[in-house]
Amino acid sequence: DAPGVDDVRIAMTQEKTALRIIAVGSGKGGVGKSTLSANLAVALKRLGHRVGLVDADIYGPSQPRLMGSEGEKPEAQDKQMFPIQSRWGVPMLSMGHLVKPGQAIAWRGPMAGNALSQLVDARWDGIDTLIVDLPPGTGDVQLSMIQKHKPAGAVIVSTPQDLALIDAARAVSLFEQAGVPLIGLVENMAGYACPSCGEVSDPFGSGGAEKAAGEMGMPFLGRIPLAMGIRTASDAGEPPAAGDGAEAEAFRAIAEQVAA
Ligand code: ADP
Questions:
Q1: For ligand 1, what atom is nearest to the CA of residue 35?
Q2: Label partner for 40 (CA 20 to 30 A): which of 31, 48, 98, 260?
């Protein structure tokens, strides 16, 4: 028998349920949440997962630049968008693909929630894991993510200093209260190796995030060093996780724990 419309509908529903959403959040901006999201997606892809990337940082979308897909426009059919195929084998969607670069997005909460749904409810055919880069903080987009899209887990990013960790704790408690499992905390911008002498210093302190993760009762997933190469590769649209240096190794180690 040829499949009928109902069979196709059931198949689509099953596919949708199979999508494992992993939300990446932070207490505040500039700590490397978008950098981690992009590189986590690429590292998971290299581990053999069928992973997609949603840039839900809809007020400041940076994934098109990080993934080298600036200027591309998603196709749509029956009000559903098709993800853009990035060069890294990770299909993606970002508000940045729908507005002109640098264009200000001034939406109120409900509209921002709708925009998030458009990105998450796109045609993620064949994808099993969706990494969602949330805006910083604990606002409307986060709430609508939690209530409507029920993430399978959340990864929180922080820099090592106390102030950033206090903000991170706020993001952690938002997910905790909503019953979203906390996959763990990643410490970014830990330890800076001087490019000329090689000496490692800790501009933001060290070990703070691991200790804080312990206090919050969540796993510590690892640290990413503050490295010039991460910034330059990211700006060039080449996620370091796609390379073969020490940074790719650090992102792979985190991806393995997120996948476990
Ligand atoms: P967020 O999403 O938290 O606002 P981003 O991922 O956009 O933060 O990172 C902010 C800036 O810091 C970017 O220019 C990025 O390239 C840089 N950056 C992030 N992580 C690192 C790192 N580990 N080493 C060097 N630069 C980094």
A1: 6
A2: 98
Tell whether residue 207 is among the known ligand binding residues.
Answer: no
Provide the number of structural domains found in the chain: 1
Question: Cβ(24)–Cβ(157) under 8 Å?
Answer: yes
- Answer yes or no: is 51 a known binding residue: no
- Relative to the CA of 157, which ligand 1 atom is closest? 3
Residue 8 within a domain: no
Higher confidence at residue 76 or residue 11?
76
Q: Using CA positions, which residue lies closest to atom 9 of ligand 1? A: 32
Position 33 in a domain: yes
Cβ within 8 Å of residue 189, ≥6 positions away: 31, 32, 159, 160, 203, 204, 224, 225, 226
What's the residue count for the chain?
260
Better pLDDT: 103 or 78: 78
Give the closest residue to 200 by CA, choosing from 224, 234, 222, 226: 226
In this structure, is residue 90 part of a structural domain?
yes
User: Residue 223 — φ and ψ, nearest 5°?
Assistant: -125, 145
30 is in an annotated binding site: yes
CATH code for the domain of 82: 3.40.50.300
Instruction: For residue 9, tell me if it sits in a domain.
Output: no
Domain of 47 in residue numbering reads as: 14-259
Q: What is this structure's pTM?
A: 0.91
Percent of the residues in the chain that have a pLDDT greater than 90, as a whole number: 71
